[in-house]
Protein: L,D-TPase catalytic domain-containing protein
Amino acid sequence: MRVEVGAWRRRTGVALGVAGMAVPLTLGVGAGTAQAAASCTAGTGPYQKQVESFLGRPVDGKQSPADCTAIRSFQRTHGITPAAGYAGPLTWRTMDTILKQRAAGKNPNKAGACPVNKGRIACVDLTRQLSWVQDGRKLVYGPVPVRTGRDGAETRTGAKKVYHRSLKHWSTIYKVWMPYSQFFDGGQAFHATDKSMYNPPGSGGCVNMRPADAKAYWNLLRNGDDVFVYGRKPGT
Structure:
């Protein structure tokens, strides 16, 4: 998980100064820890208006208890910590990625960045954290959100090919199952995960997918099929 701190810490200090909504930076144990975990920041974040707009809240640039509750719910869903309801950079970056994915609609390759002269090919756009399968200019499946490599373990860009498939692969590095694995570059593969596609900081280099999407890719692709990875993941 990625911890969203920085400006939040600088603005809040040791406590937020609002009764019943203090967020100490150093958590204690027992009841103190439980109280901190249940607290909510009253601080206005640097992306307050953008976050309010995304969540359908009144856009006034001021943090309200209802704003905080909505922001915290989003943060908890996607594993952004601390889930204190602060409209910080990581929260907004995640929302901005979702907005870009929505804007792609059913024409994710409008800019022509993924080759259309390869026949069937799986495209991965790191910038928008999107993937789809196309055949020439025809969209076959997707686009779907994906979770790619974190900073320092980026999913490598360029033209690749599926070279190994394993329906229920066991990762000896991370000690986890990788269902519907389709390897296309060294140890990097498409595979299913139960994590949110927006869970920071990202994968160890693989292209994580929701189980239904990973299964669809498994049924669509074969060894030797083309994969093209391009762009740059936000935050890397």
